Amino acid sequence: MSIYQKLAKLGLMYIGKHKLFKLGFNFSPMYRRSTARVTYVSQDVLKVRIKLPISYKNKNYVNSIFGGSMFSAVDPVPMVQLINLIGDDYVVWDKSAEIFFKRPARENLYADFIYTLEELDEIKNRVEQEDEIDIIKTTFLTNKDQTKVYCEVRKTIYIANKSYYKQKRKESKNKNR
Fold first, then answer.
1. Beta strand pairing status for 90-101 and 109-114?
2. What's this model's pTM, rounded to 2 decimal places?
3. Are 38 and 19 in contact (CB under 8 A)?
4. Which H or E run contains 66?
5. What would the pLDDT profile of 149-164 be if each residue is shown by its tens digit?
6. Which of 72, 75, 112 has the alpha carbon at shortest distance from 93?
7. Residue 151 near residue 133, CB atoms below 8 Å
């Protein structure tokens, strides 16, 4: 169990999951370095919004937001959000990512991360049938009113039944001996 997971278990005893999600990201040194901030988390954690302000900390040589800052602002959210939504019976990992830069970002950027109840039910049903699956979540970094897309990030997320995953790892270790 990571230090973040231990702190989350402790924090859940005192504040709601949505508040803990926001505070956890905004105070985490790994996320703070992206220069982004989580600005909103719905009570059910189905919707998360971030803001990536343009600043001297993330401007590149041509005075736009550095692509690495864009990616790091988006990278951890879909996986951690999903872990918080589907519970402890599943293993969730980032598997891969693609980033597509659409235009130079010379203003603050925003992104919404949304899961639906139907999507969560589909994930659980597929994992129940297939033991492990991949899903793709696409996130757009936009201006405040969402009329301009600056960057698109596609994350492939691996989800497995926890007992299946443990057995698969055990067999893999035995095979490699």
1. unpaired
2. 0.90
3. no
4. none
5. 999 999 999 999 999 8
6. 75
7. no
